[in-house]
Write a structure and sequence with these properties.
Layout (H helix, E strand, L loop, with lengths): L9 H13 L5 E4 L8 H5 L4 E4 L10 E2 L3 H14 L7
Parallel strand pairs: 1-2, 2-3
Length: about 90
């Protein structure tokens, strides 16, 4: 498995998906909504795929997200528990 960078050009995205098939990728991870507007579902044709962080509009793929507010709160609490007082 590898990470395939995506750019804004549909041709580039299609070539990355084609490369994933040729190299027999185990699956795809779509990061940061870089595939917005790209017809991803027919393109992956059975390849396992998951979205990470940003939502791909119109996609029904499984998604892993974070709650930024809760993560920042947890990090701040951790720093305070360590005795830090100047947190920017």
């Amino acid at each position: 498995a590898g990470l395939l960078p995506a750019g804004p050009e549909p041709d580039r995205k299609a070539s990355y998906l084609d490369m994933a098939y040729r190299q027999r990728a185990d699956g795809l991870i779509a990061i940061d909504g870089l595939l917005d507007g790209f017809d991803l579902l027919p393109a992956i044709q059975g390849l396992p795929c998951v979205q990470v962080l940003d939502d791909i509009q119109g996609s029904t793929l499984p998604r892993v997200t974070t709650d930024d507010h809760e993560a920042a709160l947890a990090a701040t609490r951790h720093l305070l528990a360590l005795g830090h007082r100047r947190i920017s």
